[in-house]
Design goal:
alpha/beta, single chain, Rossmann fold, eight-stranded mixed β-sheet, seven-stranded mixed β-sheet, about 325 residues, 8 helices, VC0802-like, elongated, about 25% helix
């Protein structure tokens, strides 16, 4: 099976990494092809096991073929359809190819080829095809359309307890997907803040646990989770004492304070991060992972405990660059 991910384009690498990580949660995955804002993977994973977790793609399709644009009509002309099948086709021209191809003309040509043996139904089709035109024309049979509006609705400012420094829910979901091996994973956020990461973990069915030095943040997380009908184990606890929980977690995903508008309780931020990583190492299962967001990679000293799996810079806004870092316990 090959899956075609139509990527969000918010970052050159993170959406591809997320797609690969999700596939590897339930099977093998090998990158088959890359084009403008799309990635195609060969895999034995089953879409229903991961499609509802995707944050940084727009559509997931079964990849049928990649052909020259001039051969699109011929491809569909040779396709067989069930007598009861109704079909819709959407042609998307990627940004670098806009002006070189006419999506309306291509859609009509493909529609004419399909209509010879199947009913065209643009409103309620039983089968939807998407053709993404980049360096080649990539043809997919739609498996899932990702509802990205859900993440906008869960922005922190729309929740009862808010903070201006909270991570966007879509990025929170992506960071968890890059870190957690399964939707059944147990996850700890030891700087839980307003609970954004815990919310996304709980929505995916994970065993979510959160702590924070601030009782206000712990209660704020509890309030936000409750407003969405969700629960997580929450407690007030310094990051250096999380071993007192007496648990081993599959992963730790967190967005710690940066020492700017957020509080470090007057502790130098480098010392806080050093203490945190040492504490993380003692609370993870073997080969457990940490997904952490930091303003500067030089703040992380992890060689004694972890190896780096992935890292990428992400501009949150004009004045703030965040580094997504995935570490694995050695």
């Amino acid at each position: 099976m090959r899956y075609l991910f139509e990527l969000s384009g918010e970052h050159p690498d993170i959406p591809v990494w997320e797609a690969e990580a999700l596939l590897k949660c339930t099977g093998e995955a090998k990158l088959f092809d890359r084009d403008y804002n799309l990635a195609i993977f060969s895999t034995d994973a089953i879409a229903r096991d991961f499609s509802d977790r995707i944050a940084m793609s727009h559509f997931l399709s079964e990849h049928l073929d990649s052909v020259k644009v001039k051969d699109l009509a011929s491809f569909f002309d040779e396709m067989s359809f069930d007598d009861r099948e109704s079909v819709a086709v959407k042609v998307k021209i990627t940004e670098p190819m806009k002006g070189k191809h006419d999506p309306v003309k291509l859609t009509k040509e493909i529609g004419a080829a399909i209509s010879k043996r199947a009913k065209i139904d643009l409103d309620h089709p039983s089968t939807q095809f998407r053709v993404v035109v980049g360096k080649k024309a990539h043809i997919g049979k739609v498996v899932a359309e990702i509802d990205r509006t859900q993440y906008e609705k869960r922005k922190n400012r729309f929740l009862p307890f808010s903070s201006p420094i909270s991570i966007h829910p879509r990025l929170a979901r992506a960071l968890i997907n890059l870190t957690a091996g399964s939707s059944k994973s147990s996850m700890l956020d030891p700087f839980c803040g307003t609970g954004t990461l815990l919310i996304e973990a709980a929505l995916m069915g994970m065993k979510a646990c959160g702590s924070d030095l601030s009782e206000k943040m712990v209660e704020g997380s509890r309030t936000n989770l409750g407003s969405l009908g969700l629960k997580a184990d929450l407690m007030r606890l310094d990051v250096g004492r999380i071993s007192e929980l007496g648990k081993k977690f599959d992963c730790i995903v967190t967005d710690p304070p940066y020492g700017r508008s957020s509080s470090t309780n007057k502790e130098p931020i480098k010392e806080l991060y050093d203490r945190a990583l040492e504490s993380f190492a003692g609370c993870l299962v073997n080969h457990g992972r940490v997904g952490i967001i930091v303003p500067d990679m030089r703040m992380l000293s992890f060689d004694d405990y972890f190896r780096i799996v992935r890292s990428a810079s992400f501009r949150a806004h004009r004045s703030l660059v965040r580094n997504f870092v995935i570490l694995e316990k050695m």
